[in-house]
């Protein structure tokens, strides 16, 4: 077992972050783990990367395509952490289009975890703000049947995103 794997299953939050920040040589291993389906390490590695990366981190940039391709194959919590990484990156139009489709697919599955659905919805809203022609998508995706399985708190969060997005378009 690698030192990084050991840390991922034995250390507390702050210790994991301190480890990766003080040992940048493990960053690529963390990316490889985050892209794999080697649980329980994979989703934890994705979580750790999100907490240790910078906005638009150059170390993550070269892996964007693989992260997007991996997303549909992962379980909810792992998807959420990978999405959070991608939300911090500047994506090209091709990657934005691919990720938009994946996020719509995630959002349209009411049985998925509300946390992964709301993270996917955040990306959808970001794209609608960047590309106003997508704003009609938001209306269709916020019909009651998409919101019914969400907790009151998550529903409010989604409604806030929609209101903020609509206010930004006016």
Brief overview, please?
The protein is an all-alpha fold and 170 residues long.
Can you walk me through this structure?
With 170 residues, this protein is mostly helical. The protein folds into two domains: 1-90; 92-170, no CATH class. The protein is 72% helix and 0% strand. α3 packs across α4 (41-52).
Domain module count: 2
What percent of residues are in strands?
under 5%
- Give the overall pLDDT as a whole number: 94
**Rg over C-alpha atoms, rounded to the nearest angstrom:** 17 Å
Compute the number of helices. Answer: 12
| Poorly predicted sequence stretches spanning 5 or more consecutive residues | none
State the helicity in percent bands: over 70%
Question: Which structural class best describes the helix and strand composition?
Answer: mainly alpha
Report the end-to-end length measured between terminal Cα atoms: 54 Å
> How many E strands?
0
Main β sheet profile: none
The helix/strand series, from N terminus to C terminus, equals: HHHHHHHHHHHH
Shape: globular
């Amino acid at each position: 077992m690698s030192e990084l794997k050991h840390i991922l299953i034995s250390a507390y939050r702050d210790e994991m972050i301190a480890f990766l920040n003080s040992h940048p040589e493990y960053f690529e291993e963390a990316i490889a783990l985050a892209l794999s389906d080697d649980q329980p390490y994979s989703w934890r590695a994705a979580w750790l990367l999100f907490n240790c990366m910078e906005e638009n981190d150059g170390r993550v940039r070269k892996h964007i395509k693989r992260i997007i391709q991996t997303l549909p194959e992962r379980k909810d919590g792992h998807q959420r952490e990978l999405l959070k990484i991608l939300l911090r990156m500047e994506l090209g139009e091709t990657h934005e289009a691919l990720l938009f489709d994946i996020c719509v697919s995630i959002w349209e599955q009411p049985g998925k975890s509300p946390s992964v659905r709301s993270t996917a919805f955040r990306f959808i809203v970001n794209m609608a703000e960047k590309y106003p022609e997508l704003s009609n998508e938001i209306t269709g995706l916020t019909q009651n049947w998409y919101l019914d399985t969400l907790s009151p708190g998550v529903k409010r969060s989604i409604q806030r995103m929609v209101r903020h997005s609509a206010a930004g378009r006016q």
